[in-house]
TrEMBL record:
Pfam families: FGase (PF05013). It comes from the Bacteria. This is Formiminoglutamase. SUPFAM superfamilies: Zn-dependent exopeptidases (SSF53187). It comes from Sphingomonas psychrolutea.
């Protein structure tokens, strides 16, 4: 496996980058909704980063971007191809070949975003509006801290009605929530959200302890309850989307 051969750390060290088993939660909650699952390891390429966020500290092709997008994430080692992770340090045996990273962009990053854009366009054409729910997981923020974080790019990626509806569901279920802190959403929301045109996008981060086993490795006893919470969130988003379309049609 190319990823394993290129790493200077054990493969287990990069699992911290994963939204571990959040796809299991989504699959358990899913009804008839369209669902895209990222199958490539985030250590290989992060689909929630711009393809301009190439890290010059590790990527020989970073100079190809004019200039590279030196975001805070890139400076922290979490660019398009992550350079380092907490607790493990630097990830790669050697600097990344420019053509190798370009191939990852061409074969993984662009097709994913093209597929997502096509699905949103089809939904908008069919229903008059589209809602993207971008699911992630987060480490526990600590005792008494939020266990669900909703991101809408500080109000830029979705109508406030959608965010308020999700907040109400989480609060009714007794979960502590936060909005945009510490996760406001990233490249996926920035790229695909167009609320003024009827395409809304919201990111949700679930505390991994809600649905993983005690060691944080596999699905745990809380997965069913977390999936049920997500299902209620999906339902209220659909209700709000239908209400938005009805208002626009009047």
């Amino acid at each position: 496996m190319a990823l394993r051969a290129a790493l200077r750390v054990p493969l287990a060290a990069v699992t911290i980058l994963e939204d571990r088993h959040i796809d299991a939660v989504a699959l358990a909650a899913r009804g008839c909704e369209t669902m895209l699952i990222q199958r490539r390891a985030r250590a290989w390429i992060d689909l929630n980063r711009s393809e301009l966020e190439r890290d010059p500290a590790i990527d020989e092709g970073a100079v190809w971007t004019a200039p590279p997008l030196t975001s805070a994430k890139v400076r922290g080692g979490l660019g398009l191809v992550p350079r380092r992770v907490a607790g493990a340090g630097e990830l790669w045996r050697r600097r990344l070949d420019a053509y190798d990273v370009a191939a990852r962009i061409r074969e993984d990053h662009r097709p994913y975003h093209a597929a997502l854009a096509a699905e949103l366009a089809a939904a908008q054409a069919r229903f008059g509006a589209a809602v993207l729910l971008d699911l992630h997981s987060m480490p526990s923020l600590g005792p008494g801290k939020p266990r669900v974080v909703i991101g809408d790019r500080f109000g830029r990626s979705a109508s406030g009605r959608f965010v308020a509806a999700i907040e109400a569901v989480a609060e009714a279920a007794g979960y502590g929530i936060a909005l945009n802190t510490p996760y406001a959403g990233g490249h996926i929301l920035d790229t695909h959200a167009r609320p003024a045109s009827g395409v809304h996008a919201v990111q949700i981060e679930f505390d991994r302890s809600l649905y993983l086993d005690p060691v944080g490795d596999g699905p745990g006893d809380g997965l069913a309850a977390t999936a049920a919470l997500l299902r209620r969130m999906i339902d209220v988003l659909a209700d709000e989307a239908n209400a938005t379309i009805a208002v626009a049609a009047e």
